[in-house]
Amino acid sequence: HHYRRLGLLPEPFASSSNRFLYDERHVEVLKAIRFLRQTEHLPLATIGELLPLVAADDGVEYERWARGVVEYLERSGSSLPSARLLSAARDSFARLGYDTVHVEDLCEEAGVAKGSFYRYFNSKYEIFLAAARSTVDVVDEELSGSPGALSEEEAVNALRPLLAPLLPFYLEVLAGELRGEQRMSGVFAGITDGLVSRVTP
Known about the structure:
Blueprint: H1 2-5, E1 13-16, E2 19-21, H2 24-38, H3 44-54, H4 62-76, H5 81-96, H6 103-110, H7 114-120, H8 124-143, H9 152-163, H10 167-178, H11 187-199
Antiparallel strand pairs: 1-2
Helix pairs in contact: 2-4, 3-4, 5-6, 5-8, 5-10, 8-11
C-alpha cells in the first residue's frame, strides 16, 4: 500500500472500499523495487524517477527494469550517489581498514552530503558489506571488455591488477567471519563464488 501511495505500483483493482486485488504486474514491479533497494541501494524517490523509463502497459518486467537503470546511468553520464559511495568505500576500506574509515570520509570522497548518506545505507557496517559484495561486479565489468575467451595465463594477468588492491579488503571480511560476526557469515564465500562464476566462462 505504501508503494502504491507513492505511485510506484500500477493501480490495483479495488474490489471494495478497503480491499485491493493485485496481479503479476505488481509482482514484477515489486521484484524490481527490491532489486534496486537491496542491490543498488537506491531510495524510493530515485526509484520513482527511474520507473517511467521501463514502464509498459502490460507491467514492468524485472529484466527491463534493470536494463532501464543501466541505460539511465549511461545517458546521464554520471553515477548515482549510492554508486559513488560504494566506490569510495571499496577504495577507503581496502587502503585504510574498517576501523580507520569514518562515514564523513566516505561522503567527502564521494561528494555526497553526510545527511544524504543515510538515505542509501543505514550504517558504516552496512556499506562495508555492500562494498565487499560489489567488488565482484567491478571485476566483472573490467573483464567484460576482454575480447573472446582468455587463456589461463591471460586470465591471471588480467585478474592480478584488479584483485591485488582489494586483497586487504577481502582479508578483513574473512577475519570478521572467522571472529564469528553474524552479519559476515557467508560474505567471503559469496564473493569467492561470484568471482569464480564470472571467470570460469
